[in-house]
Amino acid sequence: xxxxxxxxxxxxxxxxxxxxxxxxxxxxxxxxxxxxxxxxxxxxxxxxxxxxxxxxxxxxxxxxxxxxxxxxxxxxxxxxxxxxxxxxxxxxxxxxxxxxxxxxxxxxxxxxxxxxxxxxxxxxxxxxxxxxxxxxxxxxxxxxxxxxxxxxxxxxxxxxxxxxxxxxxxxxxxxxxxxxxxxxxxxxxxxxxxxxxxxxxxxxxxxxxxxxxxxxxxxxxxxxxxxxxxxxxxxxxxxxxxxxxxxxxxxxxxxxxxxxxxxxxxxxxxxxxxxxxxxxxxxxxxxxxxxxxxxxxxxxxxxxxxxxxxxxxxxxxxxxxxxxxxxxxxxxxxxxxxxxxx
Length: 342
Hints:
- This protein has about 350 residues and is an all-beta fold.
- Helices cover about 0% and strands about 55% of the residues.
- Strands 1, 2, 3, 4, 5, 28 and 29 form a seven-stranded antiparallel β-sheet that branches. A four-stranded antiparallel β-sheet has the order 6-7-8-9, with no helix packed on it.
- It is globular, with a radius of gyration of 19 Å.
- The two termini are about 20 Å apart.
């Protein structure tokens, strides 16, 4: 286990802060990882080259990896059901859904789709009803390409009525498996590209959809919302920016206090730039947040209003909180654990 200790005395974004953190490397491999789940004391991942596996957090030597198929496909989404059953799907077409048992890593192909526009960007499971939702870029006619996985693991492709039509060039980013957020029965879905919007529905009334315009930077294929998270049914945060201009930090962070109806830009021009993933600290009610991009890990302690870069370490794409003091990160060729020591 490689450890990096960082005591950072920073004068960043208009204020000074000392932050004592430790980064432990849990896994290194020739792999790109953009989707992880923390479960049963392990970090589970799906990645490039059709690789799927886990590494134990307290004992990184305890690890296992399999190949989902022999095609060396890239998997950027991962969903875990309450029973410890995982599902994932490759990006691109044909899209092949696989189920993996956490008990013995046995693999089964569940379904496949061959529409040329299919490109699954995110897959999440609702903790309340154990239903899964996978979202793809839209069909050529702008209609949504969503996929519902019911709690009994039967695959049901449900084209909901009244779902909004995508604008030309509006889609999703398969950056960190985090452009879906769920709290209770509420579901939020983020878009980007020519338009950046939030689609919202309720599992109890799945035919009632809200569409909310976003103030986040948008208009080109590389701009928009890359990640969202909600602390409860009211407070949420969206981050993103421009992948092709990662240092640009104007209008790339926004928060809501009314469940996504209205959004306010935060820290415009006063943050580390493009971010691929944002996660609210457990039990902080949205006060403490971590966001990361290809070139930074940043922290906010005031509901996203101001930010401090706590690490310059590169190559992390996605993260999940293990507990209130520990964050698991994954990305290019590695999985790591970040501990807040203060």
